[in-house]
Write a structure and sequence with these properties.
homodimer; 307 residues; alpha/beta; Metallo-beta-lactamase, Chain A; 2 domains; seven-stranded mixed beta sheet; 29% strand
Chain lengths: 307, 307
C-alpha cells in the first residue's frame, strides 16, 4: 500500500494559512517528495511524515515556490539522522540550483545525488518507485511526474514445476530473488504469473494543458493536478502558463484518473471550493486540495493471498 | 517613534508553532529587517508589516535559519511593488550567499545592493537608521547589530541669532537642511542645541557572551538577545556557541538596557517561560520573546514641541 499526502496546495507565494504545493508518497517506509518550496519542511512536520524516510526529491521546475525550501528540508533530514544518499531529480540545471541553494547547508551528513533530466524527459527507479516525467509547458523548463509502484505477478506453482525449478528455490524466487545453482540461473519470472496492476500517482503543476498530457498520466489511481484559478481567470492562467480547474478536470477525465486532487491554488483564490463546480461538471470526483490531505492506495487485489 | 516587532523567536529550525528569529524596525514608513530564515516572509505577513517598506536587510550570519528565507522574501517585496534599491548587509561572504540563494529569484524589480562588513565590524547609515555591528562569537563569522535613530538638538533661536543666521533660513536649518547664500554656508548646528537622546535597539543572537558585548549594546531602549536554553543546558550552549537566558540577562544588566526580549529559543525548549525566572533573577524586566511581539519606542521628550 502507498500513503500519499498533499502537504501543501498553494501556488506562487506561501500564505500564513496555506503551504506551497508539494506531495509525499511513502511505500514500505521509503518516501518520495515532489517539490519543496519555502515552508515544505513545516508542512511535512504538520503532516507527520519522517524526514529520514525521504530517498528521492523530485523538483518540477526552478521557481522559488517549488524549490527554495530545499536547504532547510535537507538540514532537517540530517537532523533526523538520515545518512543514506538522497537523490534530487529535476530539469536540466537542477545541479546548479541545488548547489547554489545549499550554500547555507554545506555539511549534510548524507550524500546528495543529483539527476539532471534531459529536455525530452526520462525515467528512473529508486526505492521501489518507478518515476517517469510528464511533459509540461510553463515559463521555464518544467516536468510533471508519474510515479508507479509495480507489482510482480502471482506465484504460480504449476509454472514453477513445468519450468523445472527445484522446490527448494520456490520461496526465494517468489520473493523476487534470482538464484544461482552451479551453472544454472533461476529468475523470478520462472515461478510468477504476468505482472499485476500496480499503483500510479501523477503530479502535474505549473503548465498549460498539452495534447499528450492525458495519455502521459493515463490510469492514475490518484492525479494531483494544478487548478490554479477558476474560469473567471482563464486569461490570466493562459498568460502565466498555468491551468484552471476546468482545464485540469478535462485532463483527468481523458486520462481516466480514479481520484483527482486539485492543487497549486493562486493566492488570489482564498477558497478553491468556490470554483470546484466548474471542475466537477467535467470530472465529478474532482476534489479541491487541502494542506495535509491524505489517502492510502492499495493494490487492487489486496486481501488475496500471494502465496 | 519607532515600531519594533520580533517576527519570530525560534532558533535552529522553524517549527509549525514558532517562526525563526527575526525582527523588523519601522521608522516613518521605512523598515529594517534583521535576519531572514525560512518562513520570515510568512511571519512578516502575520505581523502585518509592508514588504515594500523594507530598505535594509541585516543578516547576522549564514546559517540557514537566519538567511534561507531571503529569496522568497525578496520576491514578496517585488510582488508588493518595491522598486527602490534594497541594501543587504552581513559578514564577509554575504555577496556569495545572496547571489547563490537568489538563483531562484533572478528577476527582481529592484536593485539589490550588498554590503560586506569586514571582520572587524563597521557601521553605516540608511533611511534614518544608524547601524553598527556588535562583535559576536559563533561557529562562523557573525555580527549582532545596534541600530540607532539619532535625534537632532532642539531649535535654539538665541543661538541662531548669536550665530548671525538670517531669520529667513531658520526654518529650513531647523529641519536639517544646509543653506547656501552666495559665499555663505549655513548648517543646522548653527540653530540647534546639542543632539538629544535618540532611540537604540540592539539585536544579538548566535553568540557566546563576550567581555565587550554589554558595552557594545549600552543604553539600548530595547535589547533583543538570544536566550536559547535554560541553565540546565548551559554546557550545550557553550558547545554550540549559543547563550542561555541567564547569560543574556547578565549582558542586559551590564548594558543598562531598558527593555529586554529573549529570542532564538531552541526547538528543545517548547516553553521559554519555564526558564524566564533564571533571567529575571539577574534582570527583572527580561521578557521571553513571542512571535509577533511588538512595541513602539518614543523619543524621550516626545510631547514637547520641537519648534
Amino acid at each position: 500500500m502507498l500513503d500519499v499526502c498533499l502537504m501543501g496546495c498553494g501556488g506562487s507565494m506561501p500564505k500564513p494559512d496555506r503551504w506551497l504545493s508539494s506531495a509525499i508518497m511513502r511505500l514500505e517506509g521509503k518516501s518520495v517528495v515532489i517539490d519543496c518550496g519555502e515552508g515544505t519542511q513545516l508542512a511535512m512536520k504538520e503532516a507527520g511524515f519522517a524526514f529520514k524516510s525521504v530517498g528521492v526529491i523530485l523538483i518540477t521546475h526552478f521557481h522559488a515556490d517549488h524549490v527554495s525550501g530545499l536547504p532547510g528540508f535537507l538540514l532537517s533530514m540530517g537532523n533526523e539522522g538520515r545518512t543514506d544518499p538522497v537523490l534530487i531529480a529535476g530539469p536540466r540545471g537542477i545541479s546548479r540550483v541545488v548547489r547554489s541553494l545549499c550554500v547555507v547547508a554545506p555539511d549534510l551528513p548524507f550524500e546528495v545525488e543529483i539527476l539532471e533530466i534531459p529536455r525530452e524527459g526520462g525515467s528512473f527507479s529508486r526505492d521501489g518507485f518507478d518515476v517517469e516525467t510528464v511533459e509540461a509547458s510553463h515559463t521555464c523548463p518544467c516536468f510533471g511526474y508519474r510515479i508507479r509502484i509495480n507489482r510482480a505477478g502471482k506465484f504460480d506453482p504449476e509454472k514453477a514445476e513445468s519450468n523445472g525449478v527445484p522446490l527448494k528455490y520456490w520461496n526465494r524466487l517468489q520473493h523476487g530473488e534470482t538464484v544461482t545453482d552451479g551453472d544454472l540461473v533461476f529468475t523470478p519470472d520462472l515461478v510468477l504469473g504476468p505482472p499485476r496492476r500496480g499503483i500510479t500517482v501523477s503530479y502535474v503543476v505549473d503548465t498549460r494543458p498539452l495534447p499528450g498530457m492525458a495519455k502521459a498520466v493515463e490510469g492514475s489511481d490518484l492525479l494531483i493536478i494544478e487548478g490554479m484559478f477558476g474560469e473567471e481567470k482563464r486569461e490570466r492562467a493562459e498568460k502565466s502558463m498555468h491551468m484552471t480547474m476546468a482545464e485540469a478536470a478535462r485532463i483527468a477525465r481523458d486520462a481516466g484518473a480514479e481520484k483527482v486532487w486539485l492543487t497549486h491554488f493562486s493566492p488570489s483564490v482564498p477558497d478553491p471550493g468556490e470554483f470546484i463546480g466548474e471542475a466537477r461538471a467535467i470530472f465529478p470526483a474532482a476534489e479541491p486540495g487541502e494542506d495535509g490531505m491524505k489517502t492510502t492506495l492499495f493494490f487492487r487485489e489486496d486481501g488475496e493471498s500471494d502465496e
